[in-house]
Design brief:
With about 80 residues, this protein is mainly α. The protein has four helices and no strands.
Length: about 80
Amino acid sequence: MGLVSIGSAYYHWKPTSERLVWDRLPMTIAFMSIYYLVMEETMRIDSLFLLIFFIVVGVSSVIIWKIYNDLRFYIIV
């Protein structure tokens, strides 16, 4: 969660499209981790593989948004 504040401060200091990646990337990692924690608590799913999978999917959504300038996958994630 600490990286979210650093990435957000970096973006909001001088907002550009290139810096927006560093705002969204830590937030996505944090949100996917929280999503995993909610699943773990409510469904008793305890799998390190699932946590890593969620984080990889989240990071991939940011990368795909940056490369193709398409937010659809990021929005779904």
